[in-house]
Amino acid sequence: MLKAYPEKNARFFVARIQEKAVGASLLLGYKSYWENIYFATMQKFNPLYPSYLLNWNMIKYAMEQQAEIYSFGRSSFSSGTHQYKKQWGCQDLPLYWSHSHPPGKNIRSFGFLAELWRQLPYGLCKRIGPGLAERVY
Length: 137
What we know:
Helix content is 34%, strand content 23%. The protein has a four-stranded mixed β-sheet, covered by helices on one side. β3 (33-41), α1 (50-64) and β4 form a beta-alpha-beta unit. With 137 residues, the chain is of the alpha+beta class.
């Protein structure tokens, strides 16, 4: 991933406790814009706030690279993740979606299929999902 990103401005950050990775994130930069695109922490270590450590270090790194904009990445409005990001003083910017495929080709437009999919066991979804995605999306 680090080699494939054309701008060569990709950085992984890892939070460790006694050499054990308890959280990680991926920060991508383009010119003066930097965005946290992947972020995860192990839930049992969250009381130690590894997410704060990761975010602080990503912001610090972006500032060292003369970032003019730092993005905490996407999240659903009013979600727990969104509330967490708001603590950092972020400004919300709405995202507008455009679909390049013809209407009716998305499983969400077939209510009964979407409901059926939700009822399937996770293991089965993992096995058949990739094949279906090629045909449905």
